[in-house]
Amino acid sequence: MSVRLDVDLTSGVPVYEQVRAQVVGHVATGRLRPGDRLPTIRALATDLGLAPGTVARAFRELERAGVVVTRRRSGTVVAADAAPAQAQARRAAADYARAARAAGLSTDEAVALVRGALTTGDEPPTV
Q1: What is the SS3 string spanning the chain?
Q2: Which of 57, 78, 85, 112 is deepest in the core (most CB within 10 A)?
Q3: What pTM does this model have?
């Protein structure tokens, strides 16, 4: 992996989520391309000063979202269709932002709804 990942241990954001979000961001911007290989869980954990289980959780979340695929002997690579999924997510986010503004939601209210949906995987409660 030719991009650098950093974690902020003082942040309120869990470190596995920081790793996951940074990989997603690098895929979305094209810094990581389909087929690019990610470091092993152990290597990345050592580099970031994290427990291997923390990095493994980030990789599981990335795999569940279709951003990466893990193959025996090949390791973990960026999925072939990861970039289009990110483009679709950006469009959905922009559509949601427009709808939230039109509904009169504040930024905090709109973000809270998204956080709730991401955390539970369910439909968020109405504001």
Answers
A1: CCCCCCCCCCCCCCHHHHHHHHHHHHHHHCCCCCCCECCCHHHHHHHHCCCHHHHHHHHHHHHHCCCEEEECCCEEEECCCHHHHHHHHHHHHHHHHHHHHHCCCCHHHHHHHHHHHHHHCCCCCCC
A2: 78
A3: 0.66
